[in-house]
Amino acid sequence: MSAPPSLAHGVDPAAPGTLHARTVMGGIRVAPRPGRHVRFGRDQRPNVDLRVGADDQSVSRLHAEVTYEDSRWWLRNLGQQLIRLPRGQLMHRSTDPVPLEPGYTPLFIRGSGYRQHLVELHVTGVYGNPQTDLHAAATNPPKIWGLSETERLLLVVLGERYLLYEEAPRPLTYKQAEARLAYLRPGEKWRAGIIEDRIEAVRHRLHAAGFPYPLRHDRSEGRPYDNNLLHNLLRGLVESTTLVPPDLDLLENDLAL
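Predicted structure:
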């Protein structure tokens, strides 16, 4: 089913502030005019402008709304299930509206069981031409964080589950890492306290270098569980490809001896 004329025809897709919205059931684009809104959910048109989760009763008939106000598009959750935004941000129906920044914003609506329903939003930016052809331009490399060989070994031992791309991984404890290193490097006499000190030094160094996730304790809130900061460190190193699956070769006993 095509989008209503007021939501598609006559809209310049490259005009600054234009909203592009898409699900597996279709897509629309909307000009940035005060008071204009786009609604999406399980219901049919004209009650919603874009359908999502049509076969999933965990998705509300009217689940969310994006409204153009104060020169910005604002997202509001109207449904019973949470909406997940980038960086793990969650929106409840009681959450204040969130402004959409220029560029791409994926939204995930929790469905039945393990289902997640994707709504893709893109706001045409005010700078540059989004249709510029960059096929011949150099690729922007990810930020690689500097690690010594010893630091890399310790982090691979602690973060093996992250490098296996397991769902919801958690690091080994320092005591578990000590036992693993006793097998891999029996002549080096690693102790849990020494491993923790080395990792803490890495956290402090990368924090000062602008690491994207918290790596140091907030003293105003007391001392949190150190495992959470180690999780942040390993997550960021894997996401940046500083640590990659081939690093698991360091856990091969024949290479370590």
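Summary: The radius of gyration is 24 Å.
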